[in-house]
Amino acid sequence: MIKAAIFGASGYTGLELLRILAIHPQAEVVEATSRQYKGTPVSEVFPALRGFYDELIFSDPEDLGSAAKADVAFSALPHGASQDVVPELLKKSKVIDLSADFRLRDKETYKTWYGEHKAAHLLSEAVYGLPELYRKHIKGGRLIANPGCYPTSAILALTPLAGKGLIKAGSVIIDSKSGVSGAGRGASIATSFVEVTSGFKAYKIGSHRHTPEIEQELTAAAGDGLKVRFTPHLIPVSRGILTTAYAELKDGLTQAELRDIYTEAYSNERFVRLLPEGSFPDISQVRGSNFCDIGLFIEGSRVTIVSAIDNLVKGASGQAVQNMNIMFGLDETAALFTPPLSI
pLDDT per residue over 70-117, tens digit each? Predict the structure, then answer.
């Protein structure tokens, strides 16, 4: 059995890791940390997990020695906090980091969007953990930078076209809507029930930190700089991301040609579902699953790609477990190939 430690296990991504790993046939959680709940049984903080982790007690995250008995450490700590502990964790185990601390390859770009990086020497080693693009690198990696939720939905939507060099520079517009769980489990007026229910708003227009991550990966696919205009929105649901991406292509394609490009890219990917022609994703159809659903539309040279993921699963913890499976040579779908909660 692969022994896993989860640092920052009392947040939503930590809860999802615990939920998914509870049914993993070849892995077990041996350590879960929480500054707020240290010394408290996991099943007391998360009653839904009763019967699965009755003997597991949240430990102090300052005790990094707790990772010594783990083969893999998941860091579900906030941005900025992971870089403080990951170098030490790497001395004892492989690490999958769910924060943004190791996603950006360029330290100056990181500084612009997040501030100074305390472990910049690891940026060149970290593997961007999007299996559909970097599976071979993930397999041999010891530090995996789990992608952000918005970037996962946007990159999977646009990479097949970017990789063919078909997207006209300066034409990409990404419009994404996310459920409230994307803001984390901490109490906040802005994400409280009264503030969010019946509302629908855009936020951080032109300044969201996931923008450089999206641009980094689309540029890598295209081999040339691809800037995007990214606008996130908050919708009054608990989980899910729907991304609608628009782009102008260098040449027109037929609907059949567009579909062939995406079939070629994703026909062997177990967690990407290309929807039938004329059908488009709904976040309710991926809820609780590791799937990314994609729908396609083209009119001349103008293309619209719609993708849907669960922000806590394929957008975070499910993808992290998918990466763990690849790193340890397991069935990539272990604990993940389950139907979505469609209602």
Answer: 999 999 999 888 999 999 999 999 999 999 999 999 999 999 999 999
> Is this model's pTM higher than 0.85 or not?
yes
Same domain, 157 and 67: no
Same domain flag for 201 and 261: yes
Cα–Cα distance, 262 to 260 (Å, whole number): 5
Are both 48 and 110 inside the same structural domain? yes
pLDDT digits (tens, 9 = 90+) for 227-272: 999 999 999 999 999 999 999 999 989 999 999 999 999 999 999 9
Catalytic residue among 149, 234, 245, 326: 149
The DSSP letter of residue 191 is T
Q: Is 292 a catalytic residue?
A: no
**Residues 6+ positions from 134 with CB-CB distance below 8 Å:** 127, 128
Same domain, 47 and 183: no
Give me the domain span that covers residue 277.
149-311
